[in-house]
Amino acid sequence: MARSMVPLLLLCMAAAMEGAAALHLCVDRLYDSTQGKHDDGLPHLNPTEEATWMALLPRKLGAKAEFDWLALYRSLTRHAGGGGAPAEFLSQASLHDIRLGPGSMYWQGQQTNLEYLLYLDPDRLTWSFRQQAGLPTVGEPYGGWEAPDGQLRGHFVGHYLSASAHMWASTHNDTLREKMARVVDILDDCQRKMGTGYLSAYPDEAFDMYEELSEAWSPYYSIHKIMQGLLDQYTLAGNRKGLGMVVWMTDYFSERVKNLIQTHSIQRHWEAMNEETGGLNDVMYQLYTLTKEQKHLTMAHLFDKPCFLGPLSLHGDDIAGLHVNTHIPVLIGAQKRYEVVGDHLYKDIATFFFDVVNSSHTFATGGTSTMEHWHDPKRLVDEIKISSNEETCTTYNLLKVSRNLFRWTKEVKYADHYERLLINGIMGNQRGTQPGVMIYFLPMGPGRSKSISGGPPSGLPPKNPGGWGGPNDTFWCCYGTGIESFSKLGDTIYFLEEGEVPGLYIAQHIPSTFDWKAAGLTVVQQAKPLLSTDSYFEVTISISAKVASE
């Protein structure tokens, strides 16, 4: 890709955000089946553009206040210590060093999920990728959202790569490692066959439609899943192919974004983003931390959706009408921006967002959303009249928000929220010990049942009656986040604090063993199963020194 891309994009961004052009509509183009129409747009602002900020200066304050107004903005957006994560951030203990305690509900959920991951066939998973690349297909394709005519086909394969990488780190199951490496090899063959860096299970014409603002069902959503899966294969499983494949994909899509901005405008790019693009900003920030390539940082910034982050930066709390799982991943990317770049404005955005959701849009379970959207604040009683509550994908992503906030602040309220949401919003999403049987929504209303809970909204293809899915013909988005959730149940138990004397934070009381290498200690947690009649929760924590050996 041409070296001129970065300054060109930055120049386009600066020009497009001048004056009145800074204000445009944030429209959720996903179909809202509760109203039978697309959501109304909300005005939004770029949260990091000084010209936009200055336009907000109240006229009655006059020109004399301009300097103080600008100083306030620059104070809000000041960088921390030259950028990067502050040293006081807690780090997540490696899944390679954590093992769940046998017999607990967490261990059982992990084992049921492992059985499903081992059941899935690499050739069937990658059938549509091979077809798209012009390679011979093997076996029969799966059904549901991974069917050859599914508009989101390929998304689950990305989730599979992430889930299997986390599961292998959590179990070191050799059979799983062989299977997931096989999937990466097949995708590598497909990418090389096409020869442009493009990698997907559907044609690139889907992105032509996306850029033309016509009907395309979230093509970047699937791309994010594939990129994240390949990156997880590299960072968690050491598969070097994964990193190279993501870099090549990024080259291709960076060129597409550059051409879109050159041909039309940065405004056109923002408008095209008014549908579900996943966490592309998040995965690009992750990639930048590995490569230090400026173009990867630029791509991350270009997917920091300003129509959502802008009002939050000004403490605007009106999120009603927005599609929830379109926007929480963008917020997670904003959190990553704070960690990578050190921009304190994005720390404030994330903290304020959590407060808004937790205070006005959250069920007793800790989860959020009805029919995949946020509705009027503090009116949840109206939302439980239907069964399409608390989409599993939103729970998966909201857990990430809580985890990051806890790492930053060490505040118990974030760990408490994580615990409540994990127990109530994740652990019951499997149907007992049946591998590959999960739900889409978690109904909140009295007398409601998971077996007849709402499936994907009827306005989104393909139609599905909901309830419990199946191992071969479902593959909803919530199946993807479901297999990820049950693959990394140990990722929020132990956190490490660097220093002359290393510190350990235990954030969740989940039966487990942690090999604390830095301290030369083994930490074991045991928890008595909790019954509704119990007046207290009994946890035993033992710490022992490891015996040195040759």
From TrEMBL:
Source superkingdom: Eukaryota
Leader sequence residues: 1-22
InterPro entries (alphabetical): 6-hairpin_glycosidase_sf, Beta-AFase-like_GH127_cat
Keyword terms: Signal
GO biological-process terms attached to the record: carbohydrate metabolic process
Domain Non-reducing end beta-L-arabinofuranosidase-like GH127 catalytic: 99-491
Coiled coil: none
The name this protein goes by in its record: Non-reducing end beta-L-arabinofuranosidase-like GH127 catalytic domain-containing protein
